[in-house]
Amino acid sequence: MKLNIKYFGIIAEAAGKTEEVLEVSDEVSLDELKQERVQNYKIQDPDSIQLAVNHELKFNIKLKDGDEIAFLPPFAGG
How far apart are CA 33 and CA 30, in angstroms? Predict the structure, then answer.
């Protein structure tokens, strides 16, 4: 399946891009995708990164073809 990946802030800087399309196994989990991208781009502090699936913060969701996954950096309040 193909996933549309978007990177923001310091994550985009580490990746050297703001978006990409990935071809992944139909069985890949959101957590596996995060770990693979973190390792691939050597992203620092992966525990602070949040993921949004189709513009919603999601956990334990089954990904499907065409989903948009946003890698979001830590946010500061104010």
Answer: 5
Rounded to 5°, angle at Cα 73 from 31 and 15: 75
Q: Look up the domain containing 6 and give its range.
A: 2-72
* CA–CA distance, 32 with 29 (Å, rounded to integer): 5
The pTM score is 0.91
For 3-45, the pLDDT digits (tens) are 999 999 999 999 999 999 999 999 999 999 999 999 999 988 8
Query: Closest by alpha carbon to 73, among 2, 18, 28, 22?
Result: 18
The answer to the question of residue 77 being in a domain is no
The domain spanning residue 62 has which CATH number?
Answer: 3.10.20.30
Q: What are 1's two structure tokens? A: 């399946």
Question: Domain total for the chain?
Answer: 1
41 in any annotated domain? yes
